[in-house]
Amino acid sequence: MSRATAESRWHWTSIAPVLALVVLAGTFTTKPPALVLGLVAIVLVAAVLAAVHHAEVVAHRVGEPFGSLILAVAVTVIEVALIVTLMLTGPEDTSTLARDTVFAAVMISVNGIVGISLVVSALKKRGLAEFNAEGAGSALATVLTLATLTLVLPRFTTSEAGPEFSGGQLAFAALASLAIYAMFVFTQTVRHRDFFLPVEQGHGGLPDEDADGHADPPSTRTALVSLALLLVALVSVVGLAKVESPAIEDAVAAVGFPHAVVGVVIALLVLLPESISAVRSAARHRVQTSLNLAYGSAMASIGLTIPTLAVASIWLDGPLELGLGETELVLLLSSMVVGVLTVVPGRSKPLNGGLHLVILAAYIFMTISP
């Protein structure tokens, strides 16, 4: 990447968060017309892409696997804020919005991001995508435990009439989710950090001025500026998504799709930057980084969203349905079985990635046409 290109990208990603904040200030308390909503959508996408760029700059400064963790948490903050604001200000029934969005994030992460990353890496290497089986296996096990605890168990509890937790059960699930997520972060970043490093190290075309074979990290000043712009971008994305949310719900209703599709749209929106980062890492033969992003995003979506909702439930009216339906349970089980068979060998053929992508396609199709 040339110096001119780097400066241009930096310039563009510096303007986008500030512009998004200005647009948010002008539209947050109003109901914009369709043309303005279109412009807001463009600025929203720009802010999302700028957010992931600045998260990557910070991540490059702190190194792996801290980088993947920062990206996952940054994206999840957007998701959690969107869910809570939509549930607090949404129309009639938002009891299943959290479940739909979290499950969509899990399915997109463990099938979509994992699948396309494995396919891209395996095809570029003309053989197998290689990664650390111990790290990927630990991450997948954590996702499975969190999903079972928060999305499967409510389907079978009897304290409440519907697929929801009682107050005590929700509090337990929230604390357990936080504990599980904290244990994984400690394992990933302290105790067994080497399990989560790419199998093949490389700089992937990034600048290497000292010719030591590794990409040069940004300066502390650059990283701090990116951190500030990342925070601005996150605030802007949350606010602009709130501005756009009525249009999203109206569009879903207009085409006759089930309300669960709203959760899929939200998840696709907030995971877009993470998906781009994962594919770029896979193209550089850093599949472990891609898996860190995918599984880290899935577990952060659950491990941070459920505790937040447990606190927000104090102000939320109506039930909070977290239990999955029969179709979703089958798809989750299929995802986990295929995921285990994929990560255990520590290397993957394009076939494995293709299987994950087919499961994702089945999930999206069944959500649209249940």
UniProtKB/TrEMBL annotation:
Q: What is its main location?
A: membrane
Compartments, record wording = Membrane
- How far does the signal peptide extend, from start to end residue? none
Organism superkingdom: Bacteria
Per the record, membrane topology reads: Multi-pass membrane protein
What residue ranges are annotated as transmembrane? Answer: 12-28, 34-54, 66-90, 102-123, 135-153, 165-186, 223-241, 253-272, 293-316, 322-344, 351-368
Pfam families per UniProt: Na_Ca_ex
Q: Which UniProt keywords apply?
A: Membrane, Transmembrane, Transmembrane helix
This protein's record includes keyword Ligase: no
Q: Where is the Sodium/calcium exchanger membrane region domain?
A: 35-189, 226-368
Kindly give the PANTHER family that the UniProt entry links to this protein. SODIUM-POTASSIUM/PROTON ANTIPORTER CHAA, SODIUM-POTASSIUM_PROTON ANTIPORTER CHAA
Name recorded for this polypeptide:
Calcium:proton antiporter
